[in-house]
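TASK: fixed-backbone design
INPUT:
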């Protein structure tokens, strides 16, 4: 496996992880705290 292919696949994996984490963080930040506690 070439180093460029490894770097490209690693970059794609990091971008997917960042997108997922950002989505979850933004969704959690926009949630009303009272609603979050209600379902706990």
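OUTPUT:
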């Amino acid at each position: 496996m070439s180093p460029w292919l490894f770097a490209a696949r690693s970059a794609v994996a990091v971008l997917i992880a960042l997108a997922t984490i950002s989505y979850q963080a933004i969704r959690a930040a926009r949630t009303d705290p009272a609603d979050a506690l209600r379902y706990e």
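COMMENT: Helices lie at 3-30, 33-38.
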